[in-house]
Amino acid sequence: ASDLYRLRMVHDRRGSLFLCAQAASRHAETLHTDTGWFTLYFVDTAMFHAVHRSYRRGGLLVRCIPTLVLGALFSAVLFPGIARVPLASAADVETALTDTGRQLEARYSEMLDALQQELRSRIPQETSTPERFLADDSLDAALVRYVVLLEATPRGLATFAQQSPEHRALVDRLLADPALMKEMLLADGAAAPPQGRGYGPAQYGPAMKIYTAIGQASPRAGEGIFHRLALAIALEHAVPVAQSNPAAQTDAPTIVDPVKRYLHYEKAYLDGELDPAFDRLDTWELRFVVNGDEPDEILAWGREMLRNYRPDHIYTPNYGWRYVGIVRTDVKYGSENVKFDRPELQKYQNILMNGGVCGRRAFFGRFILRAFGIPTIARPSTGHAALAHWTPQGWVVCLGGGWGAGWTKTRYKKDLDFLATTQARRRPQDFVKVKRARWIGDVWGEQRVYGEHDGTPAFWNAVALRTQRAVIEATKAVALDPLGEELGEADEPTTLEKFIAAPVPPAAKQISYSANGTIVIPAAAHVKPGRNTSDVVAMKSFGGGLQLFLPRFFPEGKTILRGGTWKGLPDACTSGKRMLSGGYGKYENWGFRVAVTPRGDHPPRELTLDLGNGVTLELVYITPGTFIMGGENTVEGRFECVEVPKHEVTLTRGYYLGKYEVTQAQYEAVTGTNPSRSTKAPDCPVDNIGESDAVAFCNKLSEMTRYEVRLPT
Fold this sequence. Notes:
The chain is built from 23 helices and 23 strands. By secondary structure, the protein is of the alpha+beta class. The protein is globular, with a radius of gyration of 29 Å. 35% of the residues are buried.
């Protein structure tokens, strides 16, 4: 009494395995239960494992025995391979069209065919002058309507529209609004559900439903950053995002509520809790903020935790490690403690508590960036998980190899192709030409090619890539245009900006005595820590004054020395060294230099910072250019590493670098202490400096001078 079923693999956003049973016979519905589950009994374990292997092949024919007969009594004895599998959601299973649905499908198909015929009559399949079509927006209304119909498919739109008159009205409203469709397509359109090895129809209907619901929930959602935020959530959550809940919360929602996600970020922005650059993000960038699997209350926990626990990772001027620096300092590398994860805690809380290897560390890094409103993506490479995230200067990779070493889970599969689109999007007035060329390619039935590493493009897709390359080259001399100025959204400083601007009062380090015998000892009123407390760090507190922090574990990884106070033999004086972990450092021949981000487009050749009491810090401007990186050493050791092969590196942006190592006088002027042991002299380089000391110096100097001061690497 067995039936033959084709099992189709579908992933949700967490990567869980779903099996959709599509019957080869009309009796398939006998396996569908009210609970949304069915049980597959496999004749042998080999077949059971074959199903799991097919996870990567996209499908498999399996003979299943219905559960209604013998299942409860003999499953453990006769059928060693058992899998209890959740059914896919209704969105994953192709819905049959009603009579109304078939009429709508025919209508949308006619619209699609008519638009294609019209556009093909006005735009050639190939031309020697494609630029004139890219610079002309007169056909945009027809182009975007065609592409939306193409991506959504007439059947997909009809499936949504047939469900209610309200749904049909949403589709009609979308197709009648060229400006909204264009804005959606510039942000890469509505999300599409996984289907086999590719994707199904883009879910423009659900996106419109979410966008409309957000507009009804918030009067602010129609303009500026709030409009872009609402649209980003609508596009990204058009395919439901599975929510990662604590294992003990069995009754928690299974998907992220998109309207609540919008309201969460709106409130966090209005309360000044997000990064100061949040209102500069465009719709496409915001999609990589709002797509997390964490519940909204965990986002709030993440911000509160970092403000209380490691505020230095919030106010660091180095955008490359802002927020995500907590992964380096507090998410321990190693999986030995993962077994202690607690069911009442959410995934990211467990990661912070028990650490993990590259995957869990990258997950937490992306989470904490999203919590503060910074766009981020997964950027894995072979055998390693990493992340990339937005900064005002461009996207940067963290916790992994540089650009070109991996891929992304976006439509820009190669990481270099993703980087290219981020660079081109910095010139939105020119980037639209890239999109326009791809839309024309759609009209002529070309296969989409999203980057220079994504295959051989047909004519119009090749035009898109050439145009994108030209835009990227032009951005080298053009600053990123700010967004949101039309509403004055940046007039009020954020909590972070107020915090950075607030000076630390002298009383924060002074012990006070009162007449009633009370003695108040501030946390930072201590001498230089030593021995087992040598790694204590004092940092500005969001609660006012200073707070102390003692690292949880010894750091691991690579230590990079660039210059410094190397006082050995002449051949030990090099521009840089790489070695095994130096831990917290603080050696007597280790010093450091600082770098400063220039202001404006034409910085002077030299910069002098006034540190007070006649002490200054001189820096010189390092212009963009190309140099050879590498050395001669071929041995890996405790204080050395392989330095070959030599390779060419190009710096596309200039920066200021300290003319000399930071001196003892400069360090004392900024921090109030001089930890040097090797040589005590104000003009000698400060030594006995660890990484946390160097970072703290940069942060305090940034506060004093209002320049972005950081370490060179």
